[in-house]
Amino acid sequence: MPRLVLSARLPLLAWTLAGACATAAPAGEAPVPIVLRAQELSGQVGGPTVAQGEVALSQGPLEIEADRLEYDPDTGVAKAQGGVVVRRDGNVFRGPELQLQIERYEGFFLHPAYHFDVTGAGGQAARLDFLGRNRVAAIDATYSSCTPDDTGSYAWVLEASGVKLDFENNEGVATGAVLRFYGVPILGAPVLSFPITDARKSGWLPPSINLDSRSGLEVAVPYYWNIAPQLDMTLTPSLSTRRGAGLGSELRYLLPNHSGEMQLELLPNDRTTGERRDLLHLQHRGALPLEGRYRWTHTRASDDEYWKDFERNIPSLTPRLLASDLRTDWGGRGRWQAYARVQRWQVLQDLEAPIDAPYARAPQLGLRRSWGEAVGPRFDLELEYNRFELPDAAAGRPEGQRTHALGRLSWPLLDTPGAFLTPRLDFNAASYRLDEPSLSGGRDRASRFIPSVSLDGGLRFERDATWFGRNYLQTLEPRLLVVHTPFREQADLPNFDSAGKDLNFTTLFDANPFSGVDRVADARQVTAGVDSRLIDPSSGAEVLRLGVAQRYLFADQRITPEGVPFTQRSSDLLLLGSTSVIPSWTLGGSVQYNPEIKRTARSTLSARYSPGPFRTLSARYSLVRNASEQMDVGWQWPVYTGSGRGAGDGCSGRWYSVGRFNYSLAESRITDSLLGFEYDSGCWIGRVVAERRSTGQQEAVTRLMLQLEFVGLSRLGSNPLRTLKDNIPGYQLLRE
């Protein structure tokens, strides 16, 4: 859960020290014995005990060292002087003088310096006052993960003139808090409130800064509101130089049987367009009576241009297709599963690149069940009703209803580690009723039944082999799929949800080259393929794979994804290969070769070099004949290596270059690009990243991201980490 950045680590000081100095057992518990060692011990009955010379006092995990320690049993006060060191749970405190009334837990620690293992950071204070077992106050406290330079200055330091902590109420208050970077104050507040533990607490979060070519400079300052243990909200007011003031909000809830979140991004008056701009995203899930479950996702944007201007706000992998999807289901696990769904779409259209709106399902109702065990025959059945609708703008495409039944009977005759053989019988039955009589003969109703029979079998041979001077397990895995599906005329029937599958090693061994229900290809064919792999026997990792596969037809295929009959007797030949046998290298490639025209239809080649942490270089070439040809290069690499005072473990480089370029060879232009640098000083990390993303043939958005990460504290600025992880294969966060 988010918490206040400026004092996020200050609680560690009082929390650890408060526990470190507690020598009195809580009420009702047996006291933990105190062990005291010193070169010299002196005292008298009824008077103080004095320990001198390498004094060491321990009680449980607590250790106190000092040159001199005096304890008065009458007052219960312990006084430690000279080189006082307090250790507990890996945290260390050092100072000249400590005084503590053990019973009431009251006292002070003068000029302590402290270091926390959990963050690798520490600081100093002029004085710590213990105000009882549950309250501590610090005066002139500092916190930093940096090593001071020759003048005693820190690269960054968090300063507070006063800190008060109330452990009973889980609340801390810092006054005069300032974050300084190389002596320059960059963030501060007169009074700050923060949680002492990891528990949530209302308060301001670190500001974020975004700069792009469409919105200009935008500054946002989030406020976290801990409404209740199971409910919270983040409100983010923002100000953009081009678009004006906006407000973002995120509400989250967690109940015993329900959970969800609501996100609203609101720009009441976009100064660029003069209109209101907004995005609403809802996501809820939970339980229903009779062991039911539901999930609702709803995303809507105010206008078609929203995905270009505010893509970072859209929580979807398809920013131009926004779904509203409510799904419920009951049962399953060896019994009938009932489900219902309503799904609609908002399509953000672009005049340069329009896309067809998907059909809405309003509603989708179905039943599913599987019969059978792991061994023996198995039967799967799906019964479903759909009502398909389109937006008003999608004229010329039919709307209507479909009821279908999908069945599959399979019987694994052979299923061993070395071989498998499975005959299968499928059927696809569908009945249509359209809103308009758009079928041949002026009909609005039609139905069809398509059976399919197949036989799928394969072998696995293994042998010990030596390649490249190393021992491996080598496999040879031939596979054969025989399919017979009779032709059924479907050209007159609507296509609500079917599309051609991409041809690859997985889909080549599918009986039907279409996804969805509405289209089933006729087939009299055999698909043959063979794989060979090298496996490291010690780890089980695959270090080399080579494969080849092709489909052979005994008759013309009249129903195809391309829409024209396929009259050749063999499909494109598929070849693939991948290997990591060369240290630090990962190589891969696939080729779809058309033997009829003796040319490559599709191909991909990829290479990645990763010799160590924070060092990765990747390149990928892809070709789709008569459609696209692209080259993609990405990297993360140190450009300057220095010893670097306080460098983090594993970070041998100080300056790192990061980037990615996607170049269209067909259009002779860079479509998307990213370039940046990261600097690791040891106690802080700086990132500057520029991204250019195409939103059309002649349009692009350029974005600049700047971030300072104070190790052991927090991050400030615009966050480029998600962009780097999504765009650069193998990117590693520094200090991971």
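Second entry:
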Amino acid sequence: MDEVAGDPGIARAGAAVAARRRELDIKQRNLAKYKIINAGALIAFEKGRSWPRERTRAKLEEVLQWPAGTIATIRYGGPIPGAAPEPPADDGSASLIVDAVDVAMKTFGAAIESLPPDHDPAFPARVTVILADLRKLETVVARAAQRSRGTPDVVLALRTVRRCYDDLMFRAAATPGATLGQRLYVARRRANLSADETAIAAGLPVELVNAVEAGEAAGEADAEVLNRLIASLDG
């Protein structure tokens, strides 16, 4: 998933990085000198021809004084820090978002296709990365859908992202290396419970439920409560 030719989201992110770099007067040679990204790779990214690895993006974000994850957020249609507010999605950006999601989903499809067998020791780590990226995409598209009233294509794109995430979470939860969050997500989905309803049933904050499903670790006591709830829902 490092390079995706023709992805309009990459072109958008690359242009934003170039603008921010010029704003801060950061030279290409200095980024190469300090081993952030070499000049060729930076030029290719800023022109929308390649997508840097996650570690490289994190280094760039630090140098550009952006929060972690900003570059990926921009790629998937999110706001550019410091930029003027973008026009509503129904003023033309809706089609851009839909196109970006279409390209992104093809990329995710290829990544999922290349996953090792479910029982392979490498599967849990690989699938966790894809799920994290899908969550980021879902957040951005959901935000766009809220702004794009009267543009059902964005809602359909959101549905596509969520369906892919749902299918992959169910697959991950069925493997020997399934995380607590993956098992919790599948148990509540099978029981037709929302995250809020699950939190009420467990007597825990919904923020904790969401965090655990997103891959964060739970404390020993909370994990015990959630495991009991999963057993109850699956019973």
